[in-house]
UniProtKB/TrEMBL annotation:
This is Probable carboxylesterase 11. Coiled coil: none annotated. Belongs to the 'GDXG' lipolytic enzyme family. Residues 26-37 have a biased composition (Polar residues). InterPro entries: AB_hydrolase_3, AB_hydrolase_fold, Carboxylest/Gibb_receptor. One of its GO terms (molecular function) is hydrolase activity. Residues 26-61, 82-124 are annotated as: Disordered. Residues 166-432 form the Alpha/beta hydrolase fold-3 domain.
Length: 467
């Protein structure tokens, strides 16, 4: 059974959530028209937010980017410090007993392919003598004076290390949560280090300000944006650019103190004169190894994006979705499962409150528990399941959504898709992504299990444990 602390927090959490959902339902007349607020919101005032930090102070640098001028859609990029240490060709990393592994990393658990130690990063050639600290790079602001950007700004050269890219969609029942919340920030940092990937956390629009299909469209927009970034980076290299500067928050070439106007003709710029190439992704991202990860309702978005990536494969080149991880997906259906009956009043997100969330998300004229956004096994949903990417499903023993997620995984396995299920005993919904609050002993184990499975599909051939 869950701890007493988890039980008490669950009661408090459900009380607040029910109050907030009811308030938003009462305010529905202002939002009956799903197009009344196309810009939308991506977070709530009551959400605790973790500020971005581009300086690798804890092993992961982060940067926030607003990528769509017409909506509130934004992303947070998590770049692990291991990206600064290029791997040795045709060799596997060796464990060094003289170094203490970083707490929480895989190196302290089962394997020896986790993030590099801090000593290994000293004296690297990525812009400063001590790694990434002390960089004072010019940032070009729109409609404002340029200021200092104190953060990592990479150089496009042969010393770069290419890492897989992981798109992450947070949970919150469509109406809450954010990509920059304290809980989501901690989870993404953990995954970035354990999986050794660049994580892009998506701040999709929330309901009821932006109803279905807004959140799904935002997920697809980010996949399109990632493909555009990869193609723009290739164009930049073909134009003879030695480095990429700018991005939404500025940046510059490694070791370069300012961005000169005389260099502007060598950069792909937008109408404001700012570089549209994100340097972290251009230098370190490998979009041909893309993984989708979603928690709760975020898993619904991940599954939708995976389906669209399969249907329009060539439209997203060079991005290739090689796998997806669905963490306690927010699936429902008109015919209740055994867990939906037995655990209807389960911890944190009980079934009654989740029904309120679905009413806030789906347009009134489209509300149905067998809506394609709600039921993954509804008849006529495309593409055929046999074309879906390998899918890892994470479920919690005490979650009423468990059985339907398992059923979806079983249907994938019937058509020979690699679709294992990881079930965690005594765990509750969002146990791994709310670890900052729950302090669940299963959270770290779950993150490690995800890393072990994901590495099968993102590791380069012959270098399964070293990219």
């Amino acid at each position: 059974m869950p701890s007493v602390a988890v039980k008490l927090y669950s009661v408090f959490f459900k009380f607040l959530l029910k109050h907030r959902l009811q308030n938003r339902i009462q305010a529905q007349p202002d939002h009956n028209n799903s197009n009344s607020d196309p810009f939308g919101v991506t977070s709530r005032p009551e959400e605790s937010v973790a500020n971005s930090n581009p300086s690798f102070t804890d092993g992961v640098a982060t940067k926030d980017i607003h990528i769509d001028p017409f909506t509130s859609l934004s992303i947070r990029i998590f770049l692990p410090q291991s990206a600064l240490s290029p791997p040795e060709p045709h060799s596997k990393p060796k464990s060094n007993p003289k170094h203490d592994p970083e707490p929480g990393s895989v190196t302290s658990r089962r394997y020896s392919y986790g993030p590099p130690h801090k000593e290994e990063l000293r004296g690297n050639n990525f812009g400063a003598s001590n790694g990434v600290e002390g960089l004072n790079l010019m940032s070009a602001g729109v409609g404002a004076d340029a200021g200092l950007y104190r953060g990592y700004a990479p150089a496009l050269d042969n010393r770069r290390r290419k890492l897989p890219v992981m798109l992450q969609f947070h949970g919150g029942g469509w109406v809450s949560g954010s990509n920059d919340s304290v809980a989501n920030d901690l989870f993404c940092r953990r995954i970035a280090k354990l999986c050794d990937v660049i994580v892009i956390a998506v701040g999709y629009r929330l309901a009821p300000e932006s109803r279905y299909p807004a959140a799904f469209e935002d997920g697809l927009k980010v996949l399109n944006w990632l493909a555009k970034q990869a193609n723009l980076a290739e164009c930049s290299k073909s134009m003879g650019i030695g480095r990429v500067g700018g991005g939404s928050h500025g940046g510059g070439g490694g070791g370069v103190s300012e961005f000169n106007k005389s260099d502007a003709h060598r950069h792909i710029v937008d109408s404001f004169g700012a570089s549209v190439v994100e340097p972290w992704l251009a230098t370190h991202g490998d979009p041909t190894r893309c993984v989708l990860v979603g928690a709760s309702c975020g898993a619904n978005i991940a599954d939708y994006v995976a389906r669209k990536a399969v249907e329009g494969r060539k439209l997203f080149e060079p991005v290739k979705v090689v796998a997806q991880v669905l963490m306690y997906p927010f699936f429902v259906g008109s015919v209740p499962t055994r867990s939906e009956i037995k655990l209807a009043n389960s911890y944190f997100y009980d079934k009654a409150m989740c029904m309120l969330a679905w009413k806030l998300f789906l347009p009134e004229e489209e509300f149905s528990l067998d809506h394609p956004a709600a039921n993954p096994l509804v008849v006529g949903r495309s593409p055929p399941l046999k074309f879906m990417p390998p899918t890892l499903t994470v479920v919690a023993e005490l979650d009423w959504m468990r059985d339907r997620a398992i059923a979806y995984s079983e249907e994938l396995r019937k058509v020979n898709v690699d679709a294992p299920v990881l079930e965690y005993k005594d765990a509750v919904h969002e146990f791994a992504t709310l670890d900052v609050l729950l302090k669940s002993p299963q959270a770290q184990v779950c993150a490690e299990d995800i890393a072990i499975w994901v590495k099968k599909y993102i590791s380069l051939r012959g270098h399964e444990f070293s990219y």
